[in-house]
Fold each of these.
Amino acid sequence: MFFVAGLIGYLIARFALLKGQHPVSVPLLFWFSTVVLLMGGTSMQVALSSIRRERQLKFRRCLTFATLCGICFCILQVFGMSRLLDSHWATLDGERTPLTGLLFVLILLHGLHFVTGLAIQLYVNWRALRGRYDHEYFMGVRLCTYYWRFLDVVWLAMFGAILLTT
């Protein structure tokens, strides 16, 4: 709920404060990171389906690929978000406004949320490589898949808001 409120606040502040000013450019890295995130989410879904059918090799490969996609997404986001913040600062001539504060809070919240999920994903992946999951016990994989899909929706909403304001 805090994220949605922050996103709405960002949109309002962006349209109210920057009327007539040059738009902020969207870093190309965001497009790449979106593709990587969606590939990882799809891979997680295949991993979940595979473990339900007791296809261990396919499960481990898909889960590991999803984890690598998560790491890649995180790296791309760090560079993309820093470019977005730089772009906002340049548009505002270094002036501090509620817009930059809201954007910083959204980026921080997004980052903390993702890094926490990635840490859990790494733990689930570590357990999977040790053979801890099978067709009867795969709750950790199921929860990671749900979390990944939730992250897909959150990022797509955030990315959509950024695109709307450029």
Note: The CA atoms of residues 48 and 141 lie 6 Å apart.
Amino acid sequence: MSLNIQHLENEIIDQYLYDENPNRPWIIGFSGGKDSTMLLQVVWNALRKVEPILLTRQIFVVCNDTLVENPRIVRFINETLKKIQEAANDQQIPLIVAQTVPKLEDTFWVKLIGLGYPAPNKVHRWCTDRLKIDPTTRFILEKVDENGEAIILLGTRSAESTNRAAQIKRNEVKNQRLRKHLLRNAYVFAPIKDVTTKEVWQYLNQVAPPWGGTHKELVTLYRNANAGDCPLVIDDTTPSCGNSRFGCWVCTVVNKDKSMEGLIENGEEWMEPLSEIRNFLVEAREKPERYREKRRRNGSISDDKWGPYSYETRIEILARILEAQKEIQATENIELITHQEMVLIQYYWYRDNLFHTKVSDIYNNVYKRNLNMSRHHKNTKKETDLLYSSCKEEPKDVSLIQDLLALQKTKTLMIKKRGLQADIESRIDLFVEENQQKGEIYK
């Protein structure tokens, strides 16, 4: 190889041993793609040449899971991370694997189905901050707070694009290997920034990973997907990963998901339902007159701006996800949406005064079994009988009381009772308004 691996390893060893601040931890961004894999492998092999007694610096291998990553890639990455941690322990490399995930209220499905956020596009990429940048930023800042500073090791390369090369050059610290990062007291170290794409593949094909096995599966994934990888995202300058191999399967920022289509064409037919959902999300975003509300979430109405997805659209999207999940689970152990997400989606529907169709109704219709959305599920029939008995003179009040109880129970599950009174008052106001339209009078 024309690539001077010895030089790279020496640079890493020198930075590790003779850093002006030996206490600041290293945070290695790992996506499972070719660049981050080469980065981790070069760092690992360099540290194996250091006397064990000198390996005192904390090293974290951080992988971000948006919870809507391509399931085929998730399986591969999780298996790789397990091997990495086990091998690090066996070889006494001071390395800890960490995975970051978005907050529950920031997950893709909670925002899209729960609050009706339209699918992202190139102008409004609301997903990047919430799913990628924020989770990893929280981890980095946590380590900065603990140690004063931190060094982030990234597999970014100048050969990736002209813009990336300019950014690397612009942020370099003169006469040092590090460049400043937007985060306070954080620096970036990019050991392979001058490595070409050809050299990356040459290295991976010739040097086995120190955590065991080969790179055969990684190479196969790239070959089958027709695209590149999605790096760890820690700022908003990173382009969309929709065209890449290691990205989100729901990505609607690009017009066509070539990587998922490539995988399907190369034997991953079980992913076809995912492709259909992704295409429907694009359609729902591009046809607002059919799928979205005129009234925005702040209550305003504009002729040229649309509001969130309609209740019917949210119901349809959730049904499509659950139907796809059920179909895929016949052969693959994959979960597309979590129980916790569905609980929060239901809570947001209640807050929007959407009570007609519940999340559990949709789930039960698809899976033909009852979804327990509440700790108080066993008391439901007893409560219902008691309510009908108590509301003999006003049976229409039963549905109102059930909705109010559902609000309270959902708040309890969320361990978040703030705003409960306002939600209850809003539901009562809606109930009064509906019945006044029928000629009923309420004080």
Note: The domain at 5-108+126-241 is CATH 3.40.50.620 (Rossmann fold).
Amino acid sequence: MSGDDSDCEIEDDDYENYYNSQIEDELDMGDIRKDDPESFQYECLRVEEVEKLLNELVEMMSIQLTVTPALAKLLLHTLKWSLPEIIETYEGDAHGTLVNARVKPANNNVPKPLMHCSSTAGTLMCPVCYGNQPLQSYKALACGHLFCQECWVSHFGVQISEGISTGIGCMAQDCVVLAPEDFVLSIVTRPIVREKYQRFAFGDYVKSHPQLRFCPGPNCDIIVRSKEPLAKKVICHNCKADFCFKCGTDYHAPTDCETIKRWLTKCADDSETANYISAHTKDCPKCHICIEKNGGCNHMQCYSCKHDFCWMCLGDWKSHGSEYYECSRYKENPNIAYESVHAQAREALKKYLHYYERWENHSKSLRLEEQTLQRIKDRIESKVMESEGTWIDWQYLLDAANLLAKCRYTLKYTYPYAYYMEAGSRKELFEYQQAQLEAEIENLSWKIERAETTDRGDLQNQMDIAEKRRSILLKDFLEV
């Protein structure tokens, strides 16, 4: 996570000059970024298009290896659709486990040790149901383990009802041979069961393909394809759901997939402790009256004494132009290694709560800013009805609110990233950029809640600065 500190040898005094020079370069580029760190190529496909794509690969593999399409499909699925690896594996182990997935018709020439059943007068005893059936009613996979038709039907029916498809294997104990699609469909005759099997199998094929990802949106059947399976943001063209292409969860830049998984697991385990310690109300640091946060902005003004302070650290807001870095940064105890086990445990909890409180605060701010967005829409409607401009004249307010949500969303996910970073110059640079982004977001949030037409130029300039700070942080620290 922390990278190589040698790539980031910048003295503390140089952070501001280094960062501001990047901001100036970004502003010179204009409104359209040419190197958006979050952009990458992908396409949204329908089920029919993906089926066609997979069938073309199956046909190609079937011809190249001279195997049945069903076996080619099973090989592709098992080795995650990596054609070079499949060819190498198949040619190097022509009679191995994967190839044993081929169907071998039952006949009297099947070796006795593979039958695992007794035979008398042209009949065999099935090792599952112990019934005597004519030899021709038995079927086996390439392993040669023979079972009667009725037992195969029952076996496949149970497996499919539990959502298993490509993972269905031989019934013999300890046998690892899988059943190809054509073998299963030759056994299963009920239309509803066949349809379930084919639907589950298609889902397995998509999930095993590194270039494909189901859209997680509700009731959406779109499948996203990208030739670069990166941890970047995807927006479904159909349902507009956005998610991380690599892991399929909520987009989480700059935090990588494994780290966000660890963080969410930790939050699930420790969130009750954090919620107990972190209250929804705080006292004004000047007059000590109880204040409840009702907006996304962390710039608070006491309704009683009009004192301006920071919701997170309760410090005077006037000092945040220079000290915001200290507000978002966690100060490690330099002597913690020499403390007792209990002291170390308390310090670990303190560190976690520092990052969790800020993570949760921005989550709450995002929810509150949805209410702010609705108030902006109501305000615009009122202005238009009073003939104080048109919807187009006031569109910049909606653009600002949407950008604010975008920036705060990124800021929220900087805290898990910082929590797991190792101490060093790279972390110091990250926390500096994080603090600068947070400062600009709060400035933007404050201005949006108080914006009028006369503030349009100032607000749009603040939008540009906030987005550039967000983009530079992602460009420097987005790991894909």
Note: Residues 1-13, 22-33, 94-118 have pLDDT under 50 and may be disordered.
Amino acid sequence: MKRVFSIGCMLLAGALLTVGTVRAASEEPTIYVIQKGDTLWGLSDRFLKDPYYWPNLWARNPAIGNPHFIYPGQRVRVYPDRIEIEPRTVSPGTPAVQRPSEEPVAERSFLVSGSEGFLMEKGLNPAGRIITTSQNRQIVGEDDIVYTDIGSVHGAKEGDRFSIYKKLDAVSHPVSNVILGEKVIPLGTLQLTEVEEKVSKAIITKSYREIGPGSILLPYRDKRRQISLKAADHDLSGYIVETQSGNNAIGEGDIAFIDLGKKQGIEPGYFLYILRDVVPDQQYADISVEKLPPEVVGALVVVQSGENTSTGLVVKSIDTIYRGDRVEARTNR
């Protein structure tokens, strides 16, 4: 007998395919009925213990249709080796059947360590810099003494804390070549111990990487936090413009910077597909082929957003991801 499950949590369109390997008791499929607030991402975590499985399923099931089109009342047939979307038979507004025994799936979240970095866009200026170190050392670390160009004239006082960053090269857009900002990576934190009018003395309270003179300072805020996964409320399309490591090729667990920010409606927690365009080979086509469906190569979750750029954590990759690959979120239609 077919089983019907209802799942509770926020709807994430792309997570539809995470349930592809749920084991059926027989050749009869398991039937899932989607209702408002459901997420199959959560179902995958619940039954497969692997919420990131969906790209692997896509890779092995090229015939699966557009995964964005799921909606309340829709029935999904889950086999051991594939997923089939049943034609819609439920009228809009008709509630799906819910089993009382089913409990809501816990909200999915990601721990952000604060070591991800970001693109410093034009107009975002540092609070100050480390201008020298104790004994003029070029490299310092935790518990070492440094001096900054932040003083009481800037509103600073003893006990104020700042995050320490290293500014790297400017980042240009892979398509337009427009400069988007300068890549910065976190080095550690410091606390002011003595404050004069224009300068101050400070102690390094935490060190992630080597710290030296010239390092820039920004007001401190606790970077270690949980980012809750959520669906975009409007369509988004952009590009991976740089990677934290500087490597052209990245994969799961790596950090990427994208050309979408608050002005484009990006929020931390948004889930974006990573896509690559497929170039048609006209010599084998009898008709002119201008565009083919893009290849899905992975997904990322936005962990920090600036005005026009954001930092993303790659949560799944089924192929090598490159600078210049597209990112996209599509709302249900």
Note: The chain has three domains: 4-104, 118-224, 229-329.
